[in-house]
Design a protein that fits this description.
Largest sheet: none
Distance between the termini: 93 Å
Order of helices and strands: HHHHH
Oligomer: single chain
Strand content: under 5%
Number of domains: 1
Radius of gyration: 37 Å
Length: about 190
């Protein structure tokens, strides 16, 4: 009979221990405090995205236009004011400041992303131009190589070797190189 009562006592002790060990989640006393905390996280995420975009622009050696830069600074000042207001417990005003800052940060983010897209597009054009130049150089080298092979083939023909198939292949290769050069001129 002692075994079931020990089991019940053990379960009761474990339950009490679990309940006392579980920390109680403190609810904010001001309902705006929770909104403030949530908005601050959103603002931080948007700021991080803007900073990432600014790093991309920095790689292109691009500075932000003055109006975007000043709007970003103004938004950051609003965030700082909100943090200061929350420190003294005026969460309602802090939430209003964060909402205003978030609207400005959203506009700044859109503007910065448009600039990044323009420069990324320009980089793609520059890459394509570089590839075209590389193709032109490769075609020119192939032409030069074909002339060297032709000289060797002609010298071999003078020695009595049959090089007619080599000369035919060289003519075909030059025709292909001419077609490739024409396609490059057309931009295809």
């Amino acid at each position: 009979m002692k075994l079931p009562s020990v089991g019940v006592l053990l379960v009761a002790l474990l339950t009490i221990a679990a309940l006392t060990a579980t920390p109680a989640v403190a609810q904010p006393s001001d309902p705006y405090e929770a909104k403030y905390n949530m908005l601050l996280k959103v603002v931080d995420n948007v700021k991080d995205k803007i900073e990432d975009s600014l790093k991309v622009l920095e790689e292109f050696n691009v500075t932000l236009p003055g109006n975007i830069s000043s709007a970003y600074s103004a938004a950051l000042e609003l965030v700082e004011e909100a943090v200061n207001l929350s420190a003294v417990g005026t969460y309602e005003e802090a939430v209003d400041k964060l909402l205003t800052a978030l609207k400005e940060l959203k506009d700044v983010f859109k503007a910065v992303e448009e600039i990044v897209e323009q420069y990324e597009g320009a980089e793609e054009v520059a890459d394509a131009a570089e590839r075209f130049i590389g193709l032109r150089v490769a075609i020119e080298r192939a032409y030069n190589f074909s002339y060297k092979i032709e000289l060797l083939a002609n010298a071999s023909a003078e020695e009595g070797y049959n090089v007619s198939s080599i000369l035919a292949l060289l003519a075909e290769a030059r025709e292909l190189l001419a077609n490739a050069s024409a396609l490059l001129d057309e931009g295809a």
